[in-house]
């Protein structure tokens, strides 16, 4: 149904985006912004626009555009009604539906969108139902949201690894569904760079065996989908020699794929003597020398979220640690490219035989750090 939602200001700035299935580059909004410029008056922008690969359905409320992106044909009125429900919910929760208010309540906005749509289909759209799950913001909640829950920095470093075992001198052409999302690209010497510049396709005569065809970068200017969320509470008492730890991990934007090889690493302050923790899934260890807690979770089960909690013992007479430790996450997701990059097709020229072709996507956490 709905793949992505973009919130666009009256001036044409994209200030918030949310993806449910796969990450669609904000460059898709160029079609909408072009139509907006031609229309002149925002009220005159066509509510439904067709692009080569997507349908754009939008409404205009309170000097904001709510733009939804779908990859298949859907009843436009159904989507328009949902977008109005989103705007009404923001109005009900925050008392206003403006760019400033939405930015001030970003965390709550994402929580609402997560509940209102499930894998692209409307789920909970009534305010009274939503308020049972997500509390409307208060002064205290607003302060907490400004301190936690936001992404400080996010980027994706990706590679395309090739395994070629072909006879003769095949000439290959590899094209992507959404090459415009790539910010910075470097190629293997066999790639014809001019062809990439003009057509955004990879044309090359490959060497035999395994090699890195391309590496790319997606900056934080695009929305980098964070695949898991971490709810944590690590605290140390002002007096005494103990502390508490409580960590829960859940899936966020995994597009229905399973998170595997999930690990949590917590470098504790040097004054910590020992920990007494209980893990509902996996096992944990505490290294007395390095003061590092390592929790090996394994596969993430969305039906039963893994939790690690317990007490922390600190050396008697030591002052309270000046800052809480950070949490480092390791993970792997098969058959998912979190960048949103997708192979469209691979064609071979110069040889008459039919080759076997296959694509495998893998997402791995590089430096995924949660500040506590």
From TrEMBL:
Pfam families: Adap_comp_sub, Clat_adaptor_s. Transmembrane segments: none annotated. GO terms for biological process: intracellular protein transport; vesicle-mediated transport. One of its GO terms (cellular component) is Golgi apparatus. Keywords: Cytoplasmic vesicle, Golgi apparatus, Membrane, Protein transport, Transport. It is found in: Cytoplasmic vesicle membrane; Golgi apparatus. This is MHD domain-containing protein.
């Amino acid at each position: 149904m709905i793949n992505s939602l973009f919130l666009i200001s009256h001036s044409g700035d994209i200030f918030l985006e949310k993806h449910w299935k796969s990450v669609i580059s904000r460059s898709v909004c160029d079609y909408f912004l072009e139509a907006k410029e031609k229309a002149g008056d925002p009220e005159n922008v066509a509510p439904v626009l067709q692009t080569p690969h997507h349908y754009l359905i939008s409404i205009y409320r309170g000097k904001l555009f709510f733009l939804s992106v779908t990859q298949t044909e859907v009843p436009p009125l159904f989507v328009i009604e949902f977008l109005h429900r989103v705007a009404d919910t923001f109005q009900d929760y925050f008392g206003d539906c403006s760019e400033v208010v939405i930015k001030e309540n970003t965390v709550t906005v994402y929580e609402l969108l997560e509940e209102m749509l499930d894998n692209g289909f409307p789920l909970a759209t009534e305010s009274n139902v939503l308020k049972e799950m997500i509390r409307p913001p208060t002064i205290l909640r607003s302060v907490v949201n400004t301190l936690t829950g936001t992404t400080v920095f996010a980027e994706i470093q990706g590679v395309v690894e090739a395994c070629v075992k072909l006879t003769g001198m095949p000439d290959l052409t590899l094209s992507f569904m959404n090459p415009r999302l790539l910010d910075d690209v470097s190629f293997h010497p066999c790639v014809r760079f001019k062809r990439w510049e003009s057509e955004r396709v990879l044309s090359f005569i490959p060497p035999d065996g395994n090699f890195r065809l391309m590496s790319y970068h997606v900056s934080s200017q695009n929305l980098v989908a964070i695949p898991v969320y971490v709810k944590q509470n690590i605290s140390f008492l002002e007096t005494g020699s103990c502390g508490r730890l409580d960590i829960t991990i859940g899936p966020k934007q995994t597009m229905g794929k399973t998170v595997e090889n999930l690990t949590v690493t917590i470098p504790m302050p040097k004054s910590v003597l020992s920990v007494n923790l209980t893990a509902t899934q996996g096992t944990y260890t505490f290294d007395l020398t390095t003061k590092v807690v390592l929790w090996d979770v394994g596969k993430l089960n969305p039906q039963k979220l893994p939790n690690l909690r317990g007490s922390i013992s600190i050396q008697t007479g030591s002052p309270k640690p000046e800052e809480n430790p950070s949490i480092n996450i390791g993970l792997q997701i098969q058959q998912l490219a979190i960048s949103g990059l997708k192979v469209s097709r691979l064609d071979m020229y110069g040889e008459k035989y039919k080759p076997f072709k296959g694509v495998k996507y893998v997402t791995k956490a590089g430096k995924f750090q949660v500040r506590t």
